[in-house]
Design a protein that fits this description.
100 residues; globular
Length: 100
């Protein structure tokens, strides 16, 4: 279902954690949005976000956005400060939904 994550070095344990926490319909949506999901993951890695498995597990809605919409939302933030905040507490990423 979300085996595409193995392409970017997610292991079986990571995928199991994501699958166990999320609904099948959400995981199906993620699978259908795999190109945008991979772009968002790669972008987050590039800017220094470390806890991507937790984000995919507990804040999966972020990865259901198009990459363009994600970038539009994150542009409101001082990215280095935002990355530090996300690395301290993954739930901070919810703040992107306060801006449009």
């Amino acid at each position: 279902m979300i085996d595409f994550l193995k392409e970017i070095n997610f292991n079986d344990e990571d995928i199991k954690k994501i699958v166990e926490y999320n609904t099948k319909s959400t995981l199906d949506n993620l699978s259908c949005n795999n190109i945008n999901c991979l772009k968002i993951i790669n972008y987050l890695k590039e800017i220094g976000v470390k806890n991507i498995v937790d984000l995919l597990t507990y804040e999966i809605d972020v990865f259901l956005l198009t990459f363009t919409d994600f970038i539009k939302k994150i542009r409101f933030f001082n990215v280095p400060v935002f990355v530090d905040a996300i690395n301290d507490d993954y739930s901070v990423i919810r703040e992107i939904y306060n801006f449009d």
